[in-house]
Amino acid sequence: MTNNQLLKAVEEFGSPVYVYDAEKIEFQYKRLTNAFKSVKNLKISYAVKALSNISVLKLLNSLGSGVDTVSIQEVQLGLAAGFSPDQIIFTPNGVSLSEIEEAAKLGVKINIDNLAILEQFGTKYPKTPVCIRINPHVMAGGNSKISVGHIDSKFGISIHQIPHILRIVENTKMTINGIHMHTGSDILDIEVFLYASEILFETAKQFKNLDFIDFGSGFKVPYKAGDIETNIEELGKKLGDRFNDFCKEYGKDLTLAFEPGKFLVSEAGSFLVKVNAVKQTTSTVFAQIDSGLNHLIRPMFYGSHHDIVNISNPEGRERFYTVVGYICETDTFGSNRRINEINEGDVLCFKNAGAYCFSMASNYNSRFRPAEVLWYNNKLHLIRERETFEDLTRNQIEVDFSVKPKKALAK
């Protein structure tokens, strides 16, 4: 999208506002499928948690994607977006058996990462096929909070517990139709990913009725000029060839599955804000904007980087600014950034705002969550209205304090 198109979004829908480029989402989806074109059966299931707007889900459905869900509510969103149950995989962590049962009754694919839950589910529903999430004990990911395949992770069943899984399968007579792993987000070294994949292949040999092997995702996207990213084309060539060889060894054409979220939508998103004030202190120039960590928490939560561009003055002289929000605590988006000269009322654009941005937004400080807009077919489409005061108070129930409590009588 161009700066003028983004400025038009602010003019039409106000600020702050999230804008997503449908063409970029489609480009990323096709890039991933082309990278693995050597694989006969490939299934991409978009990770709903990255960005769960139903219009985005419908767009991905139209491209042929399935969806990866982590809550029963995401399962319901997938169904509402038109995905058939067999296009939905449910990969929760730490949920109750009843939530897994609810998902199973809807007919979606089930992925279990807990021995106790596996045994309980297999005992009650031995005829329902189940995928197992394995923890390969491989450290991958760009941040400790998003590295989920290491030995101390709460995710997955340890590879050292495979004998326990086999015992449960034998006792319950349940069918294991898939093996899954997810090492973490922001994968920098594909050799680490390929190493973890070998562990998954070895594990898969233990199960004779597989339909698919799911390698999760975590592909890194570039956050700034010159930033490294996962070499998806090289990974596609190496892992695709290895997967095809494994299928020959296994004696069956399995499906190679991935669950990308950030890779598909991150770069498609722009978060647009207006500058409320420029504040000079003894050592810093602050650009104070009409948003905060309530709308975009990743910089404060993960220390993540988002390029910040002044689209109102793209040719202006560069100066150093610390961009901060209006939340009543430390609320910094970027420190000492070189940005084209900023004035009150200018529109700033935060790049890479498609994944884990709106989906992690809140009403902290009783602020409204912003609108969402989709750029599709050369037109801006409002896909979520900005919240109102009625939305903020909708589910609150007031107590009548005019009724005074009766005093207890003294005995």
From TrEMBL:
Positions bound to substrate: 298, 302, 329, 356
Domain Orn/DAP/Arg decarboxylase 2 C-terminal: from-to ranges: 18-354
Pathway assignment: Amino-acid biosynthesis; L-lysine biosynthesis via DAP pathway; L-lysine from DL-2,6-diaminopimelate: step 1/1
GO biological process annotation, one example: lysine biosynthetic process via diaminopimelate
Catalyzed chemical reaction(s): meso-2,6-diaminopimelate + H(+) = L-lysine + CO2
Matching InterPro entries: Ala_racemase/Decarboxylase_C, DAP_deCOOHase_LysA, De-COase2_C, De-COase2_N, De-COase2_pyr-phos_BS, Orn/DAP/Arg_de-COase, PLP-binding_barrel
Active site, per annotation: 328
Positions of the Orn/DAP/Arg decarboxylase 2 N-terminal domain: 24-266
Cofactor: pyridoxal 5'-phosphate
Amino-acid positions noted as binding pyridoxal 5'-phosphate in the UniProt annotation, renumbered to this chain: 218, 356
Keywords, comma-separated and alphabetical: Amino-acid biosynthesis, Decarboxylase, Lyase, Lysine biosynthesis, Pyridoxal phosphate
Enzyme Commission number(s) of this protein: 4.1.1.20
Function: Specifically catalyzes the decarboxylation of meso-diaminopimelate (meso-DAP) to L-lysine.
Subunit structure of this chain's protein: Homodimer.
Protein name: Diaminopimelate decarboxylase
Organism in which the protein naturally occurs: Neotamlana nanhaiensis
Gene, per the UniProt record: lysA
